[in-house]
């Protein structure tokens, strides 16, 4: 019999990748990875916007003035190293002190971290630039981070509350969409990324977070079963 992990109050601790959502999220992850790869191939080595970018009716640096530019700058801050560290730190404290859920804290750090690292690696492989050589743009790391953080939070809420497949899927995908859209708007508004960079960052998180959750669960379960 497999031992069930329990918190300090004796309640069973759920996995960070809820079983009810697992099948759907694997499909979403596969589609996300496919989009990242296809768009990356389309714009590999490019240094300007492309036809797909022009499909998106989004603000530009010239069209966004006060007070919305300040909103965009504030949003951008939370994707910078300092802002991201604050968000992740607050989340880890909440998982450890409020929820008493160490596995969730590990997932939070891993989900956000792996998404950003993956985006960074893909950037170097694709080589798309904006505003001159050296400014790699595809996919957007800011968007990948914001989306990953929202996906992690929604998955933890889904597991903790025991939400069903329909409600849980709607919550997870809705949270990821809103977070990605808000950060993506900021990145395009500040002329830091092309729209397809934002799409790539969003899909990077969709591809990476479910796999990271599965790995965290399997590692935690294996460690719990190991004697000593």
Outline of this structure?
The protein has helices spanning 19-42, 68-77, 81-98, 102-126, 141-161, 165-189, 195-225. It is an all-alpha fold and 228 residues long.
Description:
With 228 residues, the chain is mainly α. The protein has one domain (19-46, 84-219). The protein has seven helices and no strands. Helix 3 (81-98) runs antiparallel to helix 4 (102-126). It is globular.
> Proportion of β residues?
under 5%
Strand tally: 0
What's the SSE pattern? HHHHHHH
Query: Structurally, how many domains make up the residues?
Result: 1
Average pLDDT for all residues? 89
Describe the global form.
globular
Approximate helicity band: 55-70%
Gyration radius, rounded: 19 Å
Q: Number of helix segments?
A: 7
Query: What distance separates the N and C termini?
Result: 18 Å
Quaternary assembly: single chain
Q: Indicate the structural class.
A: mainly alpha
Largest sheet: none
* Sequence stretches where pLDDT stays below 50 over 5 or more residues: none
């Amino acid at each position: 019999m497999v031992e069930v992990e329990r918190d300090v109050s004796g309640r069973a601790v759920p996995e960070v990748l809820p079983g009810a959502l697992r099948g759907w999220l694997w499909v979403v992850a596969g589609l996300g990875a496919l989009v990242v790869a296809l768009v990356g191939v389309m714009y590999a080595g490019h240094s300007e916007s492309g036809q797909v970018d022009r499909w998106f009716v989004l603000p530009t640096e010239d069209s966004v003035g006060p007070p919305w530019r300040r909103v965009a700058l504030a949003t951008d801050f939370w994707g910078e190293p300092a802002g991201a560290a604050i968000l992740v730190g607050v989340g880890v404290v909440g998982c450890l002190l409020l929820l008493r859920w160490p596995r969730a804290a590990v997932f939070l750090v891993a989900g956000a971290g792996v998404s950003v690292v993956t985006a960074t690696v893909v950037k170097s492989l694709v080589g798309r630039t904006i505003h001159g050589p050296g400014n790699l743009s595809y996919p957007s790391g800011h968007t990948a981070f914001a989306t990953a953080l929202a996906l992690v939070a929604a998955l933890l809420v889904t597991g903790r509350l025991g939400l069903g497949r329909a409600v849980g899927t709607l919550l997870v995908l809705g949270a990821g969409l809103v977070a990605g859209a808000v950060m993506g708007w900021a990145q395009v508004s500040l002329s830091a990324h092309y729209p397809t960079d934002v799409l790539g960052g969003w899909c990077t998180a969709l591809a990476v977070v479910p796999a990271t959750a599965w790995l965290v669960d399997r590692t935690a379960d294996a460690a719990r079963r190991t004697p000593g």
